[in-house]
Amino acid sequence: MLAERINDLLPQTQCTKCGYAGCAPYAQAIAAGQAPINRCPPGGDQGIAALAKLLKTDTLPLDETCGQHLPLQVAVIDEQYCIGCTLCIQACPVDAIVGASKLMHTVVAQHCTGCDLCVSPCPVDCIEMVTVSPVRAWGSDDATASRQRFEARNVRLAQPEQEPKKQETTQQIGDAVAQALTKARARRAAATTP
Ligand code: SF4
Ligand code: SF4
Ligand code: SF4
After folding, report:
1. Domain membership of residue 176 as a residue range
2. Closest Cα to atom 8, ligand 1: which residue?
3. 106-153 pLDDT tens trace
4. How far is the CA of 150 from the centre of ligand 3 (A)?
5. Ligand 3 midpoint to CA 117 (Å)
6. 106-107/97-98 β-pairing
7. pLDDT for res 175
8. Strand ranges (DSSP E) for 3-80?
9. Are residue 149 and residue 88 in the same domain, yes or no?
10. Nearest Cα to 18, choosing from 67, 70, 74, 73?
11. Are residues 122 and 158 in the same domain?
């Protein structure tokens, strides 16, 4: 199927920068002729060229309204300010963050795709994206590993017994965020008072 062959060429970071909910929906849109081939910043020019070859079309410049093609980034959590709300864990499409409610969270760097989806949900802005050192590009082995982690996560989330836990966790998160935000603001205010 064409959409699957297109998806095989996409980077599998699931970053949504293309404007779709992940690599597979973008692949389906391309296959249906509903999306151009130049909306994937992680894939960059090389990815566009591969898609053009498969589809026997001309290449296009990357549509930078979707984002820039950057060297591989990794999320870093400033654990000093983490309030353990778990919102970043829920946002991470490849389960690259470990932690538990009200406990410090950390990123497992070798699993991080650099998608930056964990950054904006963090209520205390303690997640930063940094370029990996040594600098390197995202490769096909990374894509394969990321796809496996994404699919394993989807299987886990689809299990029916996860639902009650999810509801319970949402309530716990609300309480934890409210309490911890108050503490974090007080801590930051104290740190900035001369
Ligand atoms: S890696 Fe590319 S195709 Fe996949 S979600 Fe991100 S922008 Fe879309
Ligand atoms: S840790 Fe953040 S940047 Fe890394 S894969 Fe997960 S959501 Fe994306
Ligand atoms: S979203 Fe921010 S504060 Fe909440 S657990 Fe993740 S890093 Fe910590």
Report:
1. 73-192
2. 18
3. 999 999 999 999 999 999 999 999 999 999 999 999 999 999 999 999
4. 20
5. 12
6. antiparallel
7. 60
8. 73-77
9. yes
10. 67
11. yes
- What lines the ligand 2 site, CB under 6 Å? 75, 91-92, 94, 96-97, 107, 112-118
d(CA 60, CA 48): 7
What is the number of structural domains in the chain? 2
Q: The domain spanning residue 40 has which CATH number?
A: 1.10.15.40
Both 88 and 40 in a single domain? no
For residues 157 and 178, what is the distance between their CA atoms, to the nearest angstrom? Answer: 26
Residue nearest to atom 1 of ligand 3 (CA): 122
- Burial (CB count within 10 angstroms: exposed 0-12, middle 13-18, buried 19+), residue 48: buried
Select from 74, 79, 85 the residue to mutate for testing ligand 3; criterion: most ligand atoms less than 8 Å from CB.
85
| DSSP character at residue 119 | T
pLDDT tier for residue 164 given thresholds of 50, 70 and 90: very low
* CA pair distance 191, 127, nearest whole angstrom: 19
Q: Is 83 touching ligand 1 by the criterion CB < 6 Å?
A: no
Q: Looking at the structure, do residues 48 and 78 belong to the same domain, yes or no?
A: no
- Does residue 65 lie in a domain region? no
Close Cβ partners of 169 (under 8 Å, ≥ 6 residues apart): 86, 101
